[in-house]
Amino acid sequence: MPTHPMYKAEGSYSELQLSQGDILNREKMKEALAGHQDYFANAKHFRGFCVVTQSCDLVRGQLAEFIYLAVIRDVLEAFDQRDFTNGGAQSSTRDVLTKMVTHSYNKRGFFYLPKRVKSGVTTDSVVDLRVIFCIHSRTHYEQLLQARTGVLREDYAGQLGSLAAQTFSRVALPSWEDVWDDISIKDKVKELFDLIKQKHGAPAP
């Protein structure tokens, strides 16, 4: 089976250097996580981990003090019954899936990893960017290298980093209803739509 374009082929990357988007085996990470990250080490629904730290901060000799990892989950376990309770939920779920598989922004912070056993991704999975923790780089760098099973191509790793940035840089704003008491968002959208249509001379329905 050909290598999925997201993943680098074996032998095409340095075995001595970590990079953003590296896939890490959970079992091989247990020793590094023991004591201070026991939950992540033992939670079986976390199928593995993915390096979120930028590659420039993983270069030997100029390491960032901590390396940030996100958990990897099976796609089937990332969604639950609430995603299918009614037509609205199902429509929203389809939208999330579409954005997920195309690696576009989605509010859940899911970064899609297609199945590739050679890269350590044994089922269609997601990097869940809502669940991130850190590990000390100088103490555990070699252990992370030994646990690595796959490497994302640079452009996909960059998109992973971009999605992580979007997930944590959103600013919380009050809801429309809290700000406006005299007009609903539905009415405001209709008003703007009608004004734009009028400006461009669209024929009346």
Q: Can you characterise this structure?
A:
With 205 residues, the protein is α+β, with helices and mostly antiparallel strands. The protein has 2 domains: 23-172, SH3 type barrels; 173-205. The chain has helices at 26-33, 38-42, 75-78, 87-101, 137-147, 154-169, 176-179, 185-199; strands at residues 23-25, 48-51, 66-74, 110-113, 125-136, 148-150. Strands 4-5-3-2-1-6 form a 6-stranded antiparallel beta sheet. Helix 1 runs antiparallel to helix 5 (137-147). The radius of gyration is 21 Å and the shape is elongated.
Q: What are the defining features of this structure?
A:
about 200 residues, alpha+beta, SH3 type barrels, 2 domains, six-stranded antiparallel beta sheet, about 40% helix
How are the SSEs ordered, and which strands pair?
Blueprint: E1 23-25, H1 26-33, H2 38-42, E2 48-51, E3 66-74, H3 75-78, H4 87-101, E4 110-113, E5 125-136, H5 137-147, E6 148-150, H6 154-169, H7 176-179, H8 185-199
Antiparallel strand pairs: 1-2, 1-6, 2-3, 3-5, 4-5
Share in β-strands: 15-25%
Order of adjacent strands in the largest pleated sheet = 4-5-3-2-1-6
Task: Give the biggest beta sheet.
Answer: 6 strands, antiparallel
Unreliable spans are none
Shape: elongated
**SSE arrangement, N to C:** EHHEEHHEEHEHHH
Structural class: alpha+beta
Give me the CATH fold name of the largest domain: SH3 type barrels
Number of helices: 8
Helix content: 25-40%
The overall number of domains is 2
Number of strands: 6
CATH architecture field of the largest domain: Roll
Termini separation: 53 Å
Q: What gyration radius follows from the Cα positions, in whole Å?
A: 21 Å
Q: CATH top level of the largest domain? A: Mainly Beta
The average pLDDT score comes to 88
